[in-house]
């Protein structure tokens, strides 16, 4: 695991990029664990609370809690929306990344898995459905490169974009914990990790205060 740190901008103080954090072997091992989790907790398409419009990503979760978006709003819940079963455990590799990167004593409760098709994107948003904003958000990328956009804590703050490649890790902590961020586009053919192309993103979060 590459421990080099690159600070992105004073405007988003607390955002750190760890390029190449997961080497190819670690990426392959994490992908095996993610696929096993998906077999237990199948992918589903979330919808926007007010409009009912489907997001362009598919998702599932690992951990004691899973993040949801549907007609009931944004929330965390302990069971899969279709199967009704508890979410599978967070993969050990992802837990080790949290322990290594988060600088936070308590373990994550949720690991959101977003699966991006080549045409998928994610609009600018804040991760603010958690109770404890002192805990960072830790993100791990697998598969095709994406163009990641990040701004400040207000929607109209200036933004900047950079590429996230397979194996990169991002930490949103400190002032950047509530920064608006999103994925502008996927760059097909930039990774051989996923046979069918696309991108998988794991987002580790602490929901409750200790």
Number of strands: 13
Distance between the termini: 28 Å
Give, in order, the helices and strands.
EEHEEEHEEEEEEEE
Helix content class: 10-25%
Fold and architecture overview:
With 210 residues, this protein is mostly beta strands. It has two helices and 13 strands. The strands form three sheets. The protein has a seven-stranded antiparallel β-sheet with strand order 1-2-11-8-13-6-3, with helices on one face. Strand 1 (6-7) and strand 2 (15-18) form a beta hairpin. The longest helix is centred in the first third of the chain and has 17 residues, at 24-40. 38% of the residues are buried.
List keywords for this structure.
mainly beta; seven-stranded antiparallel beta sheet; four-stranded antiparallel beta sheet; 210 residues
Write the layout of secondary structure elements.
Layout: E1 6-7, E2 15-18, H1 24-40, E3 58-63, E4 66-70, E5 73-77, H2 92-101, E6 110-116, E7 122-125, E8 137-143, E9 145-150, E10 160-164, E11 169-172, E12 181-187, E13 199-205
Antiparallel strand pairs: 1-2, 2-11, 3-6, 4-5, 6-13, 7-12, 8-11, 8-13, 9-10, 9-12
Summarize the structure.
The chain is mainly β.
């Amino acid at each position: 695991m590459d421990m080099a740190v690159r600070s992105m901008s004073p405007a988003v103080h607390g955002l750190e990029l760890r390029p190449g954090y997961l080497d190819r072997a670690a990426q392959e091992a994490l992908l095996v664990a993610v696929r096993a989790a998906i077999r237990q907790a199948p992918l589903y398409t979330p919808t926007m609370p007010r409009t009912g419009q489907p997001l362009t990503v598919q998702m599932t979760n690992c951990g004691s809690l899973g993040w949801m978006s549907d007609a009931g709003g944004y929330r965390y819940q302990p069971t899969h929306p279709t199967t009704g079963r508890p979410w599978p455990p967070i993969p050990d590799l992802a837990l080790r990344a949290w322990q290594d990167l988060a600088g936070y004593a308590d373990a994550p409760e949720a690991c959101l898995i977003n699966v991006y098709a080549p045409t998928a994107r994610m609009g600018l948003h804040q991760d603010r459905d958690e109770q404890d904003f002192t805990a960072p958000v830790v993100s791990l990328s697998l598969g095709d490169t994406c163009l990641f956009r990040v701004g400040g804590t207000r929607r109209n703050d200036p933004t900047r974009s950079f590429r996230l490649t397979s194996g990169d890790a991002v930490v949103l902590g400190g002032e950047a914990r509530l920064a608006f961020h999103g994925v502008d586009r996927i760059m097909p053919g930039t990774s051989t990790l996923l046979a069918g192309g696309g991108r998988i993103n794991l987002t580790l979060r602490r929901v409750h205060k200790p």
